[in-house]
């Protein structure tokens, strides 16, 4: 198989189903060798791990003439994430791309959320992104120090919930916002090692979305299926290719055939008194600034 990722070695986490599965298949179709990572648990992360989903994706890639291996390590476990990176090196001798996609949800209104639910969601999303990328970055840094050339990619998965917030998903929104900020830091720090870092905020039909947003995610009877997870994969494959080496530190929103560059927090309209404000005088100042500033985007579900 030849394509824009011909010969590149890619790890895709959470690749047994949904968006991750589409990523893995699309990378393989463009010539990449793929490590398909998935622990095979339920939508909420509970239940026993199962190798089935990852193995099925590997079988599909191999049946089409591609190269892939399965991995069942927990991405948010430091040692497991190290094994995942090592599995790419053992199977294919190198690593060029990490696509962090693994995650689950525990939908709960903030005032009802438990500590266990918060910890579980933040762990798999935010710590999961950190652990795998941290091991990969150390590998790439070592290659640079050894005199090799590196042209590597981190592709992270944020969410509209992380960019605008989503009612009933405080932990998920907070973790996804953290991933967007993590991407900016990775891009700034890892550029010297030949590594770019970008994030996507996709909207597609997955186990997470098809129940919460059932009407929006429903498959149409005919015509373009805008919410098919396969619509997200082409951007991720391009971001993982050599062609994207000049793009880093960006967050892209993608849904169907629509692609946007997200505009994050920026220093906006302001005023300088030239001296300390008194609490009592800030009301008119703040209201004047807010009247001139663009309105905030609505929180999903509000």
What's the short version?
The radius of gyration is 20 Å and the shape is globular.
Could you characterize the architecture of this molecule?
- By secondary structure, this protein is α/β, with parallel strands linked by helices.
- It has one domain: Rossmann fold (3-Layer(aba) Sandwich), CATH 3.40.50.720.
- Helices cover 40% and strands 14% of the residues.
- It has 10 helices and 8 strands.
- The chain has helices spanning 18-29, 52-63, 78-92, 115-145, 160-164, 170-190, 209-212, 214-217, 233-239, 282-292, and strands at residues 9-12, 33-37, 67-71, 97-99, 152-157, 195-203, 251-255, 258-261.
- The chain has an 8-stranded mixed beta sheet with strand order 3-2-1-4-5-6-7-8, sandwiched between helices.
- Strand 2 (33-37), helix 2 (52-63) and strand 3 form a beta-alpha-beta unit.
- Helix 1 packs parallel to helix 2 (52-63), helix 1 (18-29) crosses helix 9 and helix 4 (115-145) packs parallel to helix 6.
- The radius of gyration is 20 Å and the shape is globular.
Fraction of residues in helices? 40-55%
Number of helices: 10
The outline comes out as globular
Under CATH, the topology is which? Rossmann fold
In terms of DSSP E residues, the strand content is 5-15%
- Whole-angstrom Rg: 20 Å
CATH level 1 name: Alpha Beta
CATH architecture: 3-Layer(aba) Sandwich
Separation of the first and last Cα atoms: 46 Å
């Amino acid at each position: 198989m030849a394509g824009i990722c011909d010969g590149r070695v890619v790890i895709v986490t959470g690749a047994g189903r949904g968006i991750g599965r589409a990523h893995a298949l699309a990378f393989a179709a463009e010539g990449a060798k793929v490590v398909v990572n998935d622990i095979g648990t339920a939508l909420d992360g509970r239940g026993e791990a199962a190798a089935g989903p990852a193995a099925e994706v590997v079988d599909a890639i191999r049946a089409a003439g591609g190269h892939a291996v399965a991995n069942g390590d927990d991405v948010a476990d430091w040692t497991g994430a190290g094994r995942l990176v090592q599995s790419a090196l053992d199977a294919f001798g190198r690593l060029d791309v990490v696509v962090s996609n693994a995650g689950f949800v525990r939908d709960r209104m903030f005032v009802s959320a438990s500590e266990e639910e918060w910890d579980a969601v933040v762990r798999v999303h935010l710590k999961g992104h950190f652990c795998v990328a941290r091991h990969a970055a150390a590998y790439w840094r070592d290659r640079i120090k050894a005199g090799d050339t590196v042209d590597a990619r981190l592709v992270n998965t944020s969410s509209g919930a992380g960019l605008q917030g989503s009612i009933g998903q405080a932990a998920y929104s907070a973790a996804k916002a953290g991933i967007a900020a993590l991407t900016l830091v990775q891009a700034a720090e890892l550029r010297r090692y030949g590594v770019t870092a970008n994030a996507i905020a996709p909207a597609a039909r997955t186990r997470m979305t098809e129940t919460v947003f059932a009407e929006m995610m429903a498959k149409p009877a005919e015509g373009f299926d805008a919410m098919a997870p396969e619509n997200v994969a082409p951007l991720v494959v391009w971001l993982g290719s050599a062609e994207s080496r000049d793009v880093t530190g960006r967050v892209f929103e993608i849904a169907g055939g629509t692609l946007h560059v997200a505009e994050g927090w920026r220093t906006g309209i302001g005023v300088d008194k030239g001296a300390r404000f008194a609490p009592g005088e800030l009301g008119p100042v703040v209201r004047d600034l807010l009247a001139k500033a663009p309105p905030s985007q609505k929180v999903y579900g509000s």
